[in-house]
């Protein structure tokens, strides 16, 4: 092997530099700085010279020994003898014995006129350095390069021992030297191993210090470096993956991959193996069998994975895996079937956020997770819908991504709304409601408002976007947590017709919602009207429905805001009875024409019922009187024996339109069913008949009295003005004078014998002389008047004789019988 030489040291006028080199050492000048001291020698440090160093540069490898130059013009200068060899050739050398032997052993032995030399590799079988295991552990286990060996003495032997266990690719990158501290390690890449004076150990707190007493390798990589294990299996694995094992990091990764690949089928181990293979080889043509096996095994374990493990996969590119799509498809399935448990929310949120952010995860993972979430949404995974509302409070990005994946269907919105908690504090309220509006989910929009603000505010905000009058789901959702009073308040304040309808629906199930309404407000009236329209019995829902109705009627009378629909609704309820309503007579002309008769009929019945109940009976106004007269209840009341006679008579008295024929019919029925009429009732009956001058009714009473219904005499006494003189005399209504009696006698005679006393020869048959009678040229009444006047003052025949003949002619005449027995006539 051809070896070029170079010597470095103090160069006059330039400090450290190349002093001399063999003719073909073309890189000698370029590496002069690499062969100086790494830094100034720290004060008090002496045990550092000589030391060896080695490092690759381009296609060459430099092996050098450096000495303190005591002949230099200033302190701290060094003299270095370097050998420059082919990198390809030296990497094939099993040991460095022959090369190290070519290096000057002292500063004075450094060649002054170096030339190229030929060196033959040697295998001297020297024993390994005593601290080889320690350095192997340090190099294999280092977190920060380089590993640090304390002391310069024996460093050369350690390097020699370590080199023997390296393989060609590793030797090509292996570098070592002296260092006074981490600050002088500026090489890139840094050397794998440095030696440092023992008194500088404190400077290396972040680095792995070689432990010379180590007796066992700490890892498979360390075992390879110290000669206790063969690297062939790792090199073969690297070759399969198309990886050149040129540094310890690759060896460590291959060792780890080999261990994991041969180990158990736990998800974490297999994921680590896939990650290693993914990082080591991105070519699908390399390691195909191994990669396929790892991926299949990992895919088989996916059903056991949780969110945290899924997150660990987010930086897998799998570009070098031909069957990567199979794994990602299983990730899609796994995500779609997650339980989305609350305990996993932190990881779930991170997972969803990462699936939307290229800076947090690679594209394949993001696509698989996003597809899985979409599948969970499409298949209405119940856990997914519940989780969304938990994520709303944790992460706007996660909840937004989840909601956007839901199908914009009403059934999906319904199920989502069912999962909204009663109280919610969104991470970004404005973003959330804007998203729901964008999806057209007004019901979910309302439900979110209900969970975040007061019912009134929720309804107000909902109305700003929810304007279609045929859509109520959103408003119902906005009020889903409202009390009855809050719902009513929202309707009254905001006056939306849908809220009116909602309150009416609410009243059907919970009538108490209307308990406190007073109907001063028009919206309250609309709500009550709508409620009555749904269930008629809700007319009684207000705590004092009559007072509330009267409030409405007052507004109607004043023209200050009565809802016509409520007035019409009340017409079909007991409140239509306006008997006790204020200003009732003025209302009839104001009520809707279409419903006025309903009010009149109800009020007519109410008026009659009030009368029966003992209320003062006043004459109803014309409209009401007509309704009372046509009401079937009137006949029922008048014919009800349980209703006092005074009441029934008072009702008729208050109805000027009551016809005599109807009264006569009622009177006949009443007298047949009533055997005795109390004096006061008879007085009231007579007063009524007298006030109406109902002659036919008087006749009925007379007939009944004649039929020994003496209890009716007080009634006829009240009707005296309607009786003739005979009736008043006959019934003992008053005591007539003798003149009165003779006048009645005269009237009766005229009725029975209209042409005069000589009619039917009555006068002569009674013992009188017709010649004494007035001439026939006079009327029958005049002739009777003259004849009876003569008889009263003693003329013949006398009254008894005349009446005897008259009774013979008219034996059934009661008047004649009465006259016959009266002393003022017959003496």
Number of strands: 9
> First CA to last CA: what distance?
195 Å
Which percent band covers the strand fraction?
Answer: 5-15%
- The pLDDT mean sits at 92
Q: Approximately how much helix is present in the residues?
A: 40-55%
**Which overall shape is indicated by the principal axes computed on the Cα atoms?**
rod-shaped
Structural class: alpha+beta
> How would a textbook summarize the main sheet?
6 strands, antiparallel
Low-confidence stretches: none
Q: How many helical elements?
A: 42
Radius of gyration: 65 Å
Describe the structure.
Among the domains are: 2-205, no CATH class; 738-826. Helices cover 51% and strands 7% of the residues. The strands form two sheets. Strands 1, 2, 3, 4, 5 and 6 form a six-stranded antiparallel β-sheet that branches. Strands 7-9-8 form a three-stranded parallel β-sheet. Helix 9 runs antiparallel to helix 10, helix 10 runs parallel beside helix 12 and helix 24 (522-534) packs parallel to helix 26. The longest helix is centred in the C-terminal third of the chain and has 21 residues, at 593-613. The termini are far apart. The mean pLDDT is 92.
């Amino acid at each position: 092997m051809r070896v070029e030489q170079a010597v470095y040291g103090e160069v006059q006028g330039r400090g450290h530099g190349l002093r001399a080199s063999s003719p073909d050492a073309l890189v000698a000048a370029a590496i002069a700085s690499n062969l100086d001291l790494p830094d100034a020698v720290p004060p008090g440090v002496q045990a550092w010279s000589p030391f060896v160093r080695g490092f690759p540069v381009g296609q060459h490898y430099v092996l050098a020994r450096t000495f303190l130059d005591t002949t230099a013009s200033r302190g701290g200068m060094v003299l270095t003898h370097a050998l420059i060899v082919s990198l390809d050739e030296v990497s094939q050398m099993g040991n460095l014995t022959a090369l190290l032997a070519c290096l000057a052993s002292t500063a004075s032995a450094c060649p002054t006129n170096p030339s190229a030399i030929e060196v033959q590799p040697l295998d001297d079988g020297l024993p390994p350095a005593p601290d080889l295991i320690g350095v192997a552990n340090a190099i294999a286990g280092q977190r920060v390069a380089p590993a640090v060996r304390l002391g310069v003495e024996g460093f050369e032997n350690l390097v020699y021992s370590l080199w023997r266990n390296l393989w060609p690719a590793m030797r090509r990158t292996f570098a070592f030297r002296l260092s006074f501290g981490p600050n002088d390690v500026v090489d890139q890449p840094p050397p794998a191993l440095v030696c440092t004076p023992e008194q500088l150990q404190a400077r290396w707190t972040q680095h792995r210090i070689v432990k010379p007493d180590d007796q066992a390798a700490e890892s498979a990589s360390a075992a390879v470096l110290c000669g206790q294990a063969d690297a062939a299996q790792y090199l073969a694995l690297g070759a399969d993956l198309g990886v050149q094992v040129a540094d310890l990091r690759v060896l460590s990764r291959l060792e780890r991959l080999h261990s994991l690949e041969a180990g158990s089928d736990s998800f974490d181990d297999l994921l680590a193996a896939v990650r290693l293979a993914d990082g080591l080889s991105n070519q699908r043509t390399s390691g195909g069998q191994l990669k396929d096996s790892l991926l299949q095994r990992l895919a088989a374990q996916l059903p056991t994975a949780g969110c945290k493990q899924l997150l660990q996969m987010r930086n897998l590119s799998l570009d070098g895996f031909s069957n990567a799509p199979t794994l990602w498809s299983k990730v899609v399935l796994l995500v779609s079937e997650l339980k989305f448990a609350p305990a996993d929310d932190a990881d779930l949120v991170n997972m969803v956020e990462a699936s939307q952010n290229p800076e947090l995860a690679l594209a394949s993972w993001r696509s698989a997770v996003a597809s899985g979430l979409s599948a969970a949404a499409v298949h209405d995974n119940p856990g997914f819908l519940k989780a969304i509302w938990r994520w709303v409070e944790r992460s706007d990005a996660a909840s937004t991504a989840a909601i956007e994946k839901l199908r914009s269907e009403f059934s999906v919105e319904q199920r989502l709304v069912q999962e909204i908690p009663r109280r919610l504090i969104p991470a970004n309220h404005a973003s959330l409601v804007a998203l729901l509006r964008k999806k057209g989910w007004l019901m979910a929009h309302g439900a979110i408002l209900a969970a975040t603000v007061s019912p009134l505010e929720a309804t107000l905000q909902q109305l700003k976007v929810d304007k279609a009058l045929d859509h109520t789901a959103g408003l119902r959702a906005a009020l889903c947590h409202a009390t009855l009073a809050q719902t009513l308040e929202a309707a009254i304040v905001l006056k939306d017709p849908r809220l009116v309808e909602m309150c009416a629906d609410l009243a059907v199930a919970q009538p108490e919602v209307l308990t406190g309404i007073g109907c001063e407000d028009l919206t309250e009236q609309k709500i009550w009207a709508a409620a009555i329209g749904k269930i008629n019995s809700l007319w009684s829902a207000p705590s004092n429905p009559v007072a509330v109705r009267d409030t409405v009627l007052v507004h109607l009378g004043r023209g200050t805001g009565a809802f016509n629909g409520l007035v019409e609704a009340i017409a079909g309820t007991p409140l239509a009875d306006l008997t006790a309503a204020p200003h009732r007579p003025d209302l009839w002309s104001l009520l809707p024409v279409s419903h006025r008769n309903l009010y009149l009929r109800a009020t007519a019945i109410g008026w009659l019922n009030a009368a029966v109940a003992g209320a003062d009976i006043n004459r109803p106004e014309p409209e009401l009187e007509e309704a009372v007269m046509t009401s079937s209840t009137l006949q029922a009341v008048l014919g009800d024996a349980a209703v006092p006679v005074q009441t029934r008579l008072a009702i008729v008295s208050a109805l000027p339109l009551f016809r005599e024929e109807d009264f006569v019919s009622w009177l006949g029925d009443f007298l047949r069913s009533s055997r005795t009429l109390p004096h006061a009732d008879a007085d009231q009956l007579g007063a009524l008949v007298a006030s109406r001058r109902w002659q036919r009714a008087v006749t009925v009473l007379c007939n009944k009295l004649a039929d020994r219904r003496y209890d009716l005499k007080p009634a006829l006494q009240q009707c005296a003005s309607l009786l003739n003189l005979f009736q008043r005399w006959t019934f003992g209504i008053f005591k007539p004078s003798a003149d009165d009696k003779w006048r009645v006698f005269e009237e009766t005679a005229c009725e029975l014998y209209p042409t005069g006393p000589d009619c039917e020869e009555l006068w002569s048959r009674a013992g009188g002389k017709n010649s004494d009678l007035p001439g026939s040229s006079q009327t029958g009444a005049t002739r009777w008047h003259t004849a009876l006047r003569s008889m009263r003052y003693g003329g013949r025949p006398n009254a008894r004789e005349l009446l005897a003949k008259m009774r013979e002619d008219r034996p059934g005449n009661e008047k004649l019988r009465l006259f016959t027995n009266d002393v003022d006539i017959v003496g």
